Amino acid sequence: MTFLLPFRDAEEHLEEALVSIQAQSREDWSCLLVDDGSRDGGPLVAEAFCRRDPRFGLLRLGRLGIAEALQEGLARIRSPFVARMDADDRALPDRLEKQLEVFEKAGPRLGVVDGQCRFFREDGLVPEGMRLYQDWINGVRHPSDFDAAFLLECPVVHPAATLRREALQKVGGYRPGDFPEDFDLWLRLREAGYSFYKVGAFCVEMRDRPGRATRKDPRYRREAFRGLAMDYVLRNFPLDRPFALWGAGRGGKPWLRTLCRHNKAPAFLIDVDPKKIGTRPYGIPVHPPSALSKWKPVFCLVAVGAREAGPLIREEIGRLRPEWKEGRDWWPVVT
Fold it and tell me: What angle do CA 134, 136, 139 make, to 5 degrees?
């Protein structure tokens, strides 16, 4: 069992992260630290831990980038499981114990065991948006939850996840590019038939800094998430059969443009706005939700960005198509 911890210019918090790894209730672990071209004292902190505890190892790289650093580290790991960790977070003491217990009871198609996370800030309250995200992602626990969520948002807390190394190898590991490397990985693992699970306990405390890469790095922009989700749908969904796209407004338009560009247009669009019903963007008719029961599409993609609309749409689909299951017959998608 190996922790894989990439870092760059992480001197301020790296020691705290490594101490939390040392405090694991299971002691059968190693930790590979990957220095991605630090220019501060972070490598000195890492070297000090390596001298004191032989379970730590250090790989020094130039400034390659997070995906490349992870891939270089992964190539040097031989243990069957890889636990991701970030340099400014803290692992809770029973993280490994709880996650490995799940793997030990599961079959080989379980690729990822995630853990619940808790965001914190030293200088005040975590913003409401992050608290809402924390509540949402901690609720994605069972394989059926991941089925429903995987096209909407990144459903795995990457620094809290432990992964089957064989699964990582089969999909080619981490892929560099102008997109979020973790969301890309989860989609490829899913496409390869691996399942996901999340333990019902906090495994990692995550420092919510204004400068987090997820806020500042353009690879984590919304359009990049949407592009990966669209590519997955184009490769894996039966788009040659009649399906519906819920969302004729701002959330649905990028999906409609992409689907039409690939000659995979939906049979119709759904919207609740009376001004949109009856129009034909890209030649595709817009109907009210009742069209779901009248025309019987084989599945539906829901591209509505308003957070408050989600429960209402879920209720309406349940009323109109009670035989449908979210994550099997209809999916909310990133907008």
Answer: 105
